[in-house]
Amino acid sequence: MTHRTWTAMARFLPQTITLVIVGLSLVLFVSGFGFLTAVELKTLDLRMTARGPLQPGGETVIAAVDEKSLAELGRWPWPRQTLARVVDQLAAQGAKVIVFDMVFAEPDANIERSTLDTLAAEIRSKGILQGTLRMLINRKQAAADMDEIFADAIGRAGNVTLGYFFHFSGDGSPEGLEHFTPEAIAVSTTLIDASRFPVISASADADERFIPRAFAPEANIAPLAEAAGSGGFFNTLPDEDGSNRFAPLVIGLGQNYYTCLALAAVRAYRDNASATLALEPYGVSGVGIGKQIIPTDEAGRLLINFLGPPRTFPHYSIAEILAGNVSPDAFQGKIVLIGATAAGIQDLRVTPFSSVFPGVEMHATIIDNILHERFLLHSSTMRFFDLCAILFFGLAMGLAVFRLRPIPGLLTALCLVALFIGVNLFVFFKLNAWMNLTYPIAAMFLIYLGGTVLHYFREEREKKKIRGAFQYYLNDSVISEMLKDPARLKLGGEKKNLSVLFCDIRGFTALAEKLSPEELVARLNEYLTAMTQQVFAHDGLLDKYIGDALMAVFGAPVDQPDHARRACLTALAMTRELDRLKNTWQEKELPIFDIGIGVNSGDMVAGNMGSRMRFDYTVMGDAVNLASRLEGLNKVYGTRILVSETTYEAAKDSLCARELDRVRVSGKSNPVAVYELLGDKTAEDTFRDWMERFAAALALYRQREWDAAIAAFEQVIALKRDDETSKMYVSRCRTLKMHPPDEPWDGVFVMTSK
Prior knowledge:
Layout: H1 3-31, H2 34-51, E1 60-65, H3 67-73, H4 80-92, E2 97-100, H5 111-125, H6 131-144, H7 146-157, E3 160-167, H8 182-191, E4 199-202, E5 216-218, H9 222-228, E6 231-233, E7 246-248, E8 250-253, E9 256-259, H10 261-269, E10 275-280, E11 283-289, E12 292-294, E13 301-303, E14 315-317, H11 318-322, E15 335-340, E16 348-349, E17 357-358, H12 359-371, H13 380-403, H14 406-431, H15 438-470, H16 476-484, E18 492-506, H17 508-514, H18 517-537, E19 541-546, E20 549-554, H19 563-587, E21 594-610, E22 615-620, H20 622-637, E23 641-644, H21 645-651, E24 655-664, E25 672-680, H22 684-702, H23 706-719, H24 724-738, E26 748-750
Parallel strand pairs: 1-14, 1-15, 2-3, 2-15, 3-6, 4-10, 21-23, 24-26
Antiparallel strand pairs: 3-5, 7-13, 8-9, 10-11, 11-12, 16-17, 18-20, 18-21, 19-20, 21-22, 23-25, 24-25
Helix pairs in contact: 1-13, 1-15, 4-7, 5-6, 7-9, 10-12, 13-14, 13-15, 14-15, 18-19, 22-23, 23-24
C-alpha cells in the first residue's frame, strides 16, 4: 500500500469507525443483546445498593415463620389450628389486612381426625353409631377438623388474603402435572376467581402475547378459598442470572387475567378498590388500582424498587405473637404478611441487596412501592433518552479520541465517561428513573479502543522502520524496551524486589546416554516448550536457557506486587505439566526424567546487562544465586520444589508449604529457612495431618531428641511412604545420635557444595 493510498484512507477512517460503532450500539440496544443486557442488570443492582437503604412507609409488617417459631411451635408445616390462632391474634390486635405468602393446596394431615373417621366407620359398620355416641363422635370430628377451624378463623377475621401459584408449561402437558386434567383445572380456576382483574381496558389491536401464560393454578382448598374471598399469585419470574428485579403483576390463564398477591393486598387495604388492566398494541400499558396507575413493562411486570437488605421491614416472630409479647399497636391498621424467613423452609430469593432475601419481604417491598408510588421509571420515554445518550456521547468520544494526542485524548475520554456516569446517577438517585448505563459506555469504550488501535497502527509504521534498522544488532526484548522509551537504551539497571525461578532436569546425563542426539534434542525441545508456556501463562519473564535448565523472573520488567505467588504457581504448574509429559512418554515406552525447582524472592539488580555492542535484560545478585542453590538442594531432600523463607512469607496466604530445614548455603554465613511447596491453598486439607506430624518431628529433631524424632519421622513415613525428606531425617538423626554435634548446635544444615 502506497503512502498516498494510506493517507487517503486514513482521512475518513476516524469518522467511519465512529459511525459504525455508534450504529452497531443502537442496533444492539434496540434488539436487546443478551450479554450487554445482563451487564446492565448488574449495574442496576450496583446503583440500587449504592443508593443505600430507604425507610419503608410503615403500613406493612411481617409475621415471620422464623427459626425461633420453628423451635417453639414445631417443624413446618404447622397444624392449621396454629395458623388459626395466628389469624385470631392478628385480627384481635387490629390488623387491617392479613396476607398469607403460602398456599394450602392439600387438606391438613391430621392423625387425630383420621383416627376418628376410621373409628366412626367401624362403629357404623356394626350399626351402633347413633344417639349420644353419634353426637359425641361428630363433635370430636369437628373439633379435630383443622381445616374447618382455620376456615372459621379466616371467616371471623374477614380480612384474610391467601396466596397461590401458577404452573407453567410451553406445550400444555408438563411432566409431573398429568393430574391436572381439564376438569381439575376448571375446579382450581373457580377457586381463584376472586383474584381476576375485574376491569380490562383493551384497545382494538391490543397485543397480549407478552403477558406470561399459565398452565394451571395450584389453588387453596375450597373451604379456605371460600372463607378468604381474596387472593393473589406469588409466582416470581427471575431474570436469566437468577436475580429477582421485576415482579409480575398479571398472569394470564385461559381468557382471564389474575392479580399478584401484593396487588391483592393493596386492593384489600384500600377497601377492595377496583383493579384495571390496560392493554395496548405494544402490550400492557399499566395496571390501575382505583385512580392510581402502576407503571409496568409490556409484560405487566413492575420494576421493584428494593428498599434495602433483609429485615428492612419490621419482622415479628409468630412465636412472640402467639405468646402475646408483641405490642398491640404493632399491627393496628396495617397489612400483615405471614411468610417464612427461616432458611430451612427455603423461601429465599436473590435480589440486588442479598442472595438470601426472604420471599415474603419481596411482597412487602412491592406493596410499599405501590402505596407510596416509589416506582423506578423505565418507560419508552427513558428508552428514547437512552438512544440519545448512545448517539451524543458516542459522537463526542469520536471527536475527542481521533483529534487529540493519546494522553489528552485519554483524559477527555475519562471526562466524558465520568460526565455520563454522573448524569446517569443523578437521574437514578434524584428522579427514580433507570437510564441505561452499559450501552453508552460500551459505545464510548469501543470508539476509544478504535482510536487507540488506529494510533497504534500509525505508530507501528514508524516503529517498523526503527526495528528494521536495529533487528540485526539488538535482541527483540531490548528493541521493545527502546521503542517504549529510547532513553533506556543504555547499560545498567535498578534495584528491585523480584522472584527468581530455576528449573533443572534430574538425570540429564543418563537420559543423554539412552537417546540419540536427534531424539535428545527433540525431547529437550518438547520439555522446554512446555515449561516456557507455564512461565508465560503466569506473566513471567523467561530470562534464559542454561543447557537443560531454565531461569525465569517475576516482577520485572513489569511490576507485579504478587510476583512471589506467581513464581510459586508457575513451579506447581511446571510439575503438573511434566507429569502429563511423563504419562505420554511412558505410553510410548520412552525414558522419563524428573525436575528440581528452586524459587527465591529478594532484592536484586534488574536491567540491561552486557557490553556496549550487545546486551540483554536480566537480573543479578545474591538472591538469584540463592534460587539456584535451592534448586540443587532438591537432591538432598528428595523434593521437587523448594522455596526460600522470603518467598514463603510473601505467598503463604495463597499456597500450601511445609518447612523442611534451616540451611547455610555455600558462601553465606546466615542460615535460611527452606520450604517444600506442595500446592495452592486448597491443598491444605489434604496435607494437614501429614504436615502437622512432620512439623512435630522436626521440632524434636531441633531439640536433639534423636530417638523421639526418629519415631516421629517414621510415623510421617507411614502416613506418606514416598516422603523422601522424612527418610533423610531418619538417617540424619541416626548419624547425629552416633556422632552428636558440637555445642552450641543451632540445627542448621550446612550445604558444602553448589
